[in-house]
Amino acid sequence: MAVYNPSGGVNVHVDKILTQISVAWPNAGLIGDQLFPLVPVQKQTDKYYIFGREGWLVVNDLRAPGTAANEIPGLALSTDTYYASEHSLQIPITDEERWNADNPLAPDRDGTELVTARVMLGRERAMQTLATTAANFASGSTVTLVGTQQWNDYINSDPISDMRTAKVTVNSRIFMNPNVGVLPYQVMAKLEDHPDFIERIKYSERGIVSADLIGAVLGIDKILIPGVGINTANEGQPSTLGYLWGKDALFAWVPPRAGLKIPAFAYEFGWSGNPGGSVQYVDRWREEVRKSDLVRVCRYYDIKLVAQGDAGTADAGKAIAAYLIKNAIA
Questions:
Q1: DSSP 217-281
Q2: Is residue 319 over pLDDT 90?
């Protein structure tokens, strides 16, 4: 590949330095990667196995002398596919911007960070949509709270019971407790003053409801509190601001690492066999007629809910390793 020449023609250069800036960019408030562990893949599209749950079947294993042992079939296998689409945005860095930039402004770095932020926000939005759509969950694995059930009703609501229902439901399907809870900022703000939690933790060292204390009450390893904002207005229109993760709560089993025969709520399949050689990279090129360098951030990925109900049932293709509470607060 030719070395990038800012004064040359339209030659595209994968920029290692800007890629490092993009990969290391601190995405404060984004939590999608903690729900969707990354699975690096070498093919842009391929199949992956979904294993059956025959390992939990109890069968007669008593063998009489001189007879063959009872023979069992192997695990049932079905497949699903992923396609790691390219998600990319670009920004021009003009000569005039470089000439006029004063410290601490750095147009190449600043442009890379801005484009990265927009690409990663789109990824987070896709993950949030997949993880909070009730139709994606198996029957009995989601509930919508209404009226006095919602946790902002400090007299009638019972958030601890609701969360324990989530925990027990996930365990009944995969025989493991959910280890990650998602309580978005607006939800957590209401729980901080909820009498049920205050009563449980009033004798703790701080006596203040926190993510760690909620996790301790429920026996859940990690509580995530996404607070990232989003502007849903059309380009050029006045801002319409809101919280990306809204008012839904989620409890899921997320393995410490992705792997074969390891159940998981969801994975991100990231293609690293692209020309950039990594799941996410930055390239740039010169457009002399515009007196600008173009900086582009690219990420190839697909996101999938991978622990699913049994094939041939109404829950086939539906998530079983998580429980969704819609409209946890009004």
A1: HHT-SEEE----EEE-SPTTSPP-EEETTTT-EEEE---SS--TT---SEEEEEE--STTSSSEE
A2: yes
